[in-house]
Amino acid sequence: MAMRQKPRQSVVKTITAWQEEFTAIWEGEKKFIVRVDDGEIKRGSSLEIVEYDPASDTVSGRSIRSTAGRVERNHGIWSGYVAVTLMGQSNHTDTSNLVFQDIAVQERKW
User: Fold this and answer.
1) Residue 61: what pLDDT?
2) What angle do CA 40, 12, 7 make, to 5 degrees?
3) What is the distance between the alpha carbons of residues 95 and 103, in angstroms, rounded to a whole number?
4) Cα-atom radius of gyration of the chain, to the nearest Å?
């Protein structure tokens, strides 16, 4: 009898984007992000981009699911930063009309 393998859980890397940058991604005007390189984003990584307001230190409830395309850590990128192209942007979510309690932006397993 063959052992049944558990399905792999894909880890979704949740990252924040300030309102102006998030809106450009949401509207399809921007196809990449530049962020501090924590070494966790690789080509094919699942990303959830969450709109963040630094003035109030809150998230709006809007998010975008995407996949990391080209990940560039050299060649004109500042030391300690990474540029990531966004492929297959989908699942735009707007929960800004819902009430959140103790929301934390973190990595989640799906």
Assistant:
1) 87
2) 110
3) 13
4) 16
Q: How many residues does the chain have?
A: 110
Nearest-5° Cα angle at 5, 48 to 66:
15
Identify which of 46, 55, 47, 62 has the alpha carbon closest to the alpha carbon of residue 103: 62
DSSP assignments along 13-42, one per residue: EEEEEEHHHHHHHHTTS--EEEEE--S---
Place of tokens 């540029």: 83
Residue 7 burial (CB count, 10 A)? 6
State mean pLDDT over 63-72.
93
The mean pLDDT value for 51-61 works out to 91
CATH of domain 11-96: 2.30.130.30
